[in-house]
Amino acid sequence: MKTGNIEAIRNLAVPKDDIRSSIREIQERSTFGVNPASTGYYDSIVPAKDMMMSSYSGQMAGGTNGGLQPLRETAHKQLAAKMRIPWAYYSRLLKDSPYMLATNVNHWLWHEDNGKRKFLVRHDLADGQPTIRAILSEMYKRIDHIEVISELLPILDDGGYTIKAAWTTDDGELNIRAVSPVLIADVKVGDTVQGGILISNSEVGLRSLNVEPYVYRCVCSNGLVVPVSSTEFAFRKIHKGGVIRPNNLHAYRNETLFETVVKHITDGAWTNTFDDMVGVMRIAADEPVRPTTVLDTINRVDPAVTLSEPELALFKTHLEKALETDPFGCSVYMVANCVTRTAQDVEAFTRSTELEKFGATVMRLGSKDFKLAPVTA
To answer: Is pLDDT at 14 greater than 70 in this prediction?
Structure first.
């Protein structure tokens, strides 16, 4: 996983000084309070009729600084979607025929809705070179990482939370995983888990702001994200409903939103969910499974989450290692932990979190859900 402003630190608690330093790094590059002429992120509201793609390079003109700016892949995909150009065709033209791509893009920019449509264009001035990192609706609600961190980190500090991992990706996603000092339980002797929260956000339209239940297994640093469908303790705010005017283009706050998030984190609802999840894990530890059934079953649990061949190979490796070292034998609990262990090896943040949620789904299976009959004494 590529990391940006926050260094990815797995398996270790993050010292507060490091987090503070990371916050400063994010703040230096954030739109939050940054003048358009300053180094960092900045935004523009651009009418479609004022945008133009170069017929030679695939770069775009339009925005505060003017001139041609390269687009990151996320921005290219967003532009393709907004112009209703299939991504496979768009990416092929970008590589092999930028002139044809520019002809397509510019036609739809200038003619759809008579060019009156407006976009929120998010720019990055990294290394002094303006780059377009996102092309979004003018109604996109901006919730930037620095605001998330500035508002929520003090709440985590006050609650005694320990940050186990924190990072941003090159695509503008933020991920913070923190565990509570009071939500601690043993699944079995010597196997302690801690309850916590996963905070995630995107500045470029890739995901909503989420606060989700998180379970950290101390013995191996695996993380398990409890799916929203299985708990009432979850907060989600899509980036929609922003009203951007010239006087708030570079200075904006989300006070009311974060008052709701803070209340959500501190109202104690997660305690009951954690107790329920620990109960599920204890039951799973007592649900025996024949090892030979696991590989045939794992990709039939949820049609929406199928392990790829490389992921399946990683999962098999972790399962074989667990079978060699776990004196309790193969169980649903072991299988679920092998899924979450595989999630640690996956570079893409979104996919890693998806597998951690899948681990929670597997945790709720019973022996009967596997292909062959359960093990008998």
So the answer is: no
